[in-house]
Design a protein that fits this description.
Helix content is about 30%, strand content about 30%. The strands form 3 sheets. Strands 3-2-1-4-5-6 form a 6-stranded mixed β-sheet, with no helix packed on it. Strands 7-8-9-10 form a 4-stranded antiparallel β-sheet, with no helix packed on it.
């Protein structure tokens, strides 16, 4: 038995269910959650509690599935014998994910809840890769102290393979695109610059109604991020009006 935790999962409709974990430290749970999200994306499974439970049944010993909804442990203010609390929001329509991790105890074991991580679809895989590398280093150190024998269930090479897999997903275009969207900066119009704009992936998109009452939208692509460009340097674009594509490049 390791660190104890409760994971509260809330779906896009605001419904929540809670699950107890016996191995609840972030080093284990964050990579497990990343595996679940990657599995759901790969197999086009909905981001729901039912999919969480299906993954837990398919891969026993990973995600917690002992339900504690409606019990004392489900109360966010309860600490008891818990060490961590996780809040996972799954929004299936937008494929959005937000994971908040709370450490419930201070350095002397006293109750002292604090937020230690907040992850989205854009950052989950990068953090999972970092934690897998950390676990690989710990396993190597343990093996060095025990005649080169890796600890049971903690093969350093296995942790490094998982880290490489997570890093590959983290650097993939779909995930980098999510990060760019979440990092987009909206600039409001001012009296001396009466045109609102959005800055995304190095691109400025400016919209304004001119004096003749014409809506003008312009895209400035010269500083577009390298990952967004085709091999010939051009930036793929699609313009839609009321959901209908009117321009592709």
């Amino acid at each position: 038995m390791g660190n104890r935790a409760v994971v509260t999962i809330t779906d896009q409709h605001g419904n929540s269910r809670c699950f107890w974990a016996g191995w609840g430290s972030p080093e284990y749970q964050i990579p497990h959650v990343a595996d679940f999200v990657a599995w759901a994306d790969r197999h086009q499974r909905p981001l729901t509690v039912d999919s969480w439970l299906a993954h837990a049944d398919t891969f026993p010993g990973t995600l917690p599935r002992l339900e504690v909804t409606g019990t004392t442990a489900a109360d966010d203010t309860y600490i008891g014998d818990l060490d961590y609390r996780y809040h996972l929001v799954l929004h299936d329509d937008s494929r959005a994910v937000r994971l908040r991790v709370y450490q419930l105890r201070g350095p002397l074991g006293q109750p002292q809840p604090r937020l230690v991580a907040e992850l989205t679809h854009a950052t989950l895989y990068g953090e999972a890769a970092r934690l897998c590398e950390l676990m690989a280093d710990r396993a190597h150190q343990w093996a060095d102290r025990h005649g080169g024998v890796a600890p049971p269930g903690n093969d350093p090479d296995g942790w490094r393979r998982r880290a490489a897999q997570f890093l590959e997903i983290h650097q993939s275009t779909p995930v980098v695109a999510i990060a760019a969207n979440l990092d987009a900066r909206v600039v409001a119009a001012r009296f001396d610059a009466p045109h609102p704009a959005i800055h995304i992936a190095g691109v400025w998109i400016i919209a304004a109604v001119d004096a003749g009452g014409v809506l003008q939208v312009s895209a400035h692509l010269q500083d577009a991020a390298g990952w967004l460009r085709r091999p010939d340097g051009t930036v793929p674009m699609r313009v839609t009006v009321d959901g209908e594509p009117v321009f592709d490049a």
